[in-house]
Structure prediction request, 596 residues.
Amino acid sequence: MSEYAISIASNMGMIAFVALSAYVVLVVGEISFGQQAYFGIGAYVSGMATAMWGWPFGFALVLGSCVAAIAAFAVGALTLRLRGLYFAIATLCFAEMIRLGLNSIHVQVEIDGEPVGPDGAEGFGDIRWMFEHDVTTLEYMFIIYALLGAVLVVLLLVERSNLGAVIRMIGQDPLLARSQGIDVGTCKLLVIVFSGMIAGLGGCLYAHFATYIEPNVFNVMLGVHALAYGLIGGLGTALGPIIGVVLDIGFLEGVRAIQGYRMIAFGGLVAILLIIMPRGILDEVRIHHIKRWLRRQ
Amino acid sequence: MIDFIQTTLDGLSIGSAYALIALGFTLVFGVMRRINLSYGPSIMLGAFAGTWAFVTLEAQPWLVAVVTIAGTVAVGMYVERLCFWAIRKDAAIASMVSSFVIWMQLEEVATILLPGRTYPYPELFKFGGIDIGPYFLRMEHVTTLAVAMFMLVVLRLLLYRTRFGLALRAVSESSEAAVYMGISPVRITFWAFVFASFIGGVAGYLLLAADQQVTPYFGLWATFKGLIAMMLGGLGSIPGAIVGGLLLGVIEAHTQWYLGNAVKDLTAYLVLFLVLVLRPGGLLGQGIVERHAQAFRRI
Prediction:
């Protein structure tokens, strides 16, 4: 594979983490404009762990996703009462607070006579773990896809389980779920924490891939894109957001012929797609049909 | 004390522009219960059409205003047909995402129209401002405030004194019941959208004429300022949109004056976050949230 193809594939893998985290929140019936914040927290924390404190990469991944999960727990607990647009805007506020807060964080240490660490709006460079340990971009791409595969397997297993049915039920009608004796609040909180963890893990990978991160990478556009991926690919299965990512990034990079007009073409195509299939390509009904067809075979 | 009042006045004048944008959002949300994310970008594209006329055709400022408002309304109609009218009634999230992808489309159209980053925008008045005692008011800001108040009155009259307003409120209450009364929700929604776009176009023109420049980022800025102002005042409440907009302006002006530019946006988000967590209906709208919570408690 050429370096260019590897970088596109790695980017798709890392964005897929944010898309998946937005998707699980959508499945539980809420819209979040704030998943990019967990991505950013994961990126900054894990970057600090390896570049400033010299932690091994694996521990940095765990630390980054745990801190992101804790942040998601705090936000989820505070916004548990909110629904619909209120929840969406509250998460947006949180994410923007994190982004603007990162703009004014200056924590730097001297390593080999060079200052290393987050420097406000100047960003956070020299996250050099990949170079220091001779990890090629191809190997790193495999790390990304291995972790993405693991997350996908977990999500698909949960969807087959009783818990998955409960989560979908809450997403359809929380009042009905509550009257069936389901603890709606706890379930929602669980899903939100898990979504934060997934996004945080993606952020950890992103920081070490890009080696330079700045707060503006984690702006609201990233979060809204992640939402859109879930809806394009379909809300019926965890594979949906992946399809969305591949269509968007694959399409944007693939179709060089319409350079300069590609957002016009892509935007129009997605708008038409959403008219025909309002819950995406692989929505619940279509997944149900596919499963039934597979069982018959 | 003089500083404090001057800052408050400055805040009120920028806040009145926020209030206008929030009014447009409230109108659309009130009728459709859906969010139009490309509201800000449609204003931006209208403004780009206006500034295009200004730069290439050397149009007069009044003509620029007409082009801006007409452009915003035209783009608004396009968005309504594609993202709201065409999408099934029970798919509110699809509408929101669809309006987001159209946002990307509008931004690209704007950069094709005018590829640079910043363009000049003609100012409204050549004379500067008025002095009242120790205070100074810029003429553009006075105009914005006056227009916002005028729009509030017009909107109130439209909603509560005309047959169209009655029909609009009926659709907002229950579109099924409205159909039985012989009202066409599709038509009402369309005209509400057109009216909201008109308000947005006016707000955009006033804001940009005060700034005297326009960038593609205006779309993002307008969408999120409008959303914040609307949520701050209370979702779906017209006085709430005005109060939320003015309050947002005053908060921003004060934090900028006393704490600096970096803290300005942070404070706005923090205040809204706290309002949502502590008083989920916003400042002037408690009904919906309260009803929902009661239903939940009964079970």
Notes: Chain A has a mean pLDDT of 88.
